[in-house]
Amino acid sequence: MEWVRFIAAAICLIFAAVMECIAVFGVYKFRFVMNRMHSAAIGDTMGLMLGALGLMLLKGSRWFSYKMVLVVVLLWMTSTISSHVIMRMEYNIDQKAVEEETGGR
Amino acid sequence: MSRKRRDYKSTFYSRIENFVNGKEQFLIYRESKKTDVEKFESLEEELTEAADLLEMREELQWMRDHTEPLDFLKRFHRLYGVIAVLVCFTMMVLLLVTVSWLPRFGNADNPANNEVIKRYIEKGEEETGAVNIVTGLILNYRGFDTMGETHVLFIAASCVMILLLIAEGEEKRAGYAFDRYLEPKNDIIIQKVAAFLVPMVFVLGIYVILNGHLSPGGGFSGGAIIGAGLIMYVSAYGFHKTERFFNEHVYKVAKVSALCFYVCCLSYYFYMGAHGYDNHISLGTPGNIISSGLILFINIFVGTEVACTMYAFYALFRKGGLE
């Protein structure tokens, strides 16, 4: 049982690291701000959740695990909201670039 | 894909102009769609909006008349890059040379390893009443230093006010007319999340301040948390709602009285210490909330000061005034 838990935690942590790598790669690869924000948000949501899940599996049912749940909930709230505000601001101040990029859709 | 770097003066004004023009066209469009009864019913609202539009046009003209060309900025930026690299390089060399003269880390004979640290660790809890040795250290043993830091914060806020506070007049009106131009206005998503998060942030800040002598934290960190909560509230609901409980008057009273009480508390320490008297304020049981003498109150005053400063910086940079 210990081994199963360890392997599950390791898989979660590895996937979290992969997600963070994808996020960083996307932020440097893309030029348009909305694409970059999309890939940055992957690291903040998926990467964070998988990392926290892996740590929770490693530690088992303790106060630490419940704190990690709280961290995930709060960060999911704040990080997505800040992405939303930045996107709305980009749309407000640079509609021309947004229309060029999206083809007027 | 790549966007050219445009002259930011012209883009800024063209954006504001587009905004004003778009609003005018929208009003005309809406007017054409209405029946006579609706027109009559919404006359007052229409008039207010038209007056707003006229005022915005006036502000735009005023801003256009009162700005100078920014050509010198380009030359300045080129020079700035060269000087920045030179200064950074000099600082780097100086710091590396200094580090090479320092004694080895962790050496028992280092000058930093003396009786002072031993005293802090062994007698800190007994003498200050604070379980958190760091708080006992910075607010009691080294209170003079911390008082200087708090005054630095006060002076920094005053300097920002001197530089950015806008006097009554046309400039202030212009700042108000375009205050929320670049930011979302009444965004329902931010408002819902802020309604949930802001009370939690305030409670966390108060907890960190009140537990400053028991657990990691204290006035500076708790004050920064409360200031961040205030900033979140402002960005969600706007200045009108914030001014109901935190306006310039409250700011002045809270900030100055916190600083005065703080100086009074520390003056008591200095007076008693300099004359060799005993401390007559009971330290209580270490570990209780109400213990460690004046440290709890000093934490509260420092927290108020820091929260006010954080919020004032935000408000001053955003619109040049607290109300």
Structure write-up:
The complex is a heterodimer of chains A (105) and B (323). Chain A contains four helices and no strands. Chain A is mainly alpha-helical and 105 residues long. Chain A has one domain (2-102). Chain A is elongated and about 55 Å long. Chain B is extended. Residues 1-8 of chain B have low confidence and may be disordered. With 323 residues, chain B is an all-alpha fold. Chain B has two domains: 7-94; 129-169 and 185-319, no CATH class. Chain A binds chain B through residues 31-32, 74, 77-78, 81, 84-85, 88-89, 92-93, 97, and chain B through 1-3, 15, 181-184, 187, 189-190, 193, 196-197, 235.
- Give me the number of helical elements of chain B: 13
Strand-and-helix sequence of chain B, N→C? HHHHHHHHHHHHH
- Beta content of chain A comes to under 5%
Overall helicity of chain B: over 70%
How many domains make up the coordinates of chain A?
1
Q: Count of DSSP helices of chain A?
A: 4
Report the end-to-end length of chain B measured between terminal Cα atoms: 42 Å
Assembly of the depicted chains: heterodimer
| SSE run of chain A | HHHH
Classify the helix fraction of chain A into a percent range. Answer: over 70%
Largest interface: A-B, 13 and 15 residues
Uncertain runs of chain A? none
- The secondary-structure class of chain B comes to mainly alpha
Gross morphology of chain B = extended
The structural class of chain A is: mainly alpha
State the shape of chain A: elongated
Radius of gyration of chain A: 17 Å
Taking all Cα atoms into account, the compactness measure Rg of chain B is: 27 Å
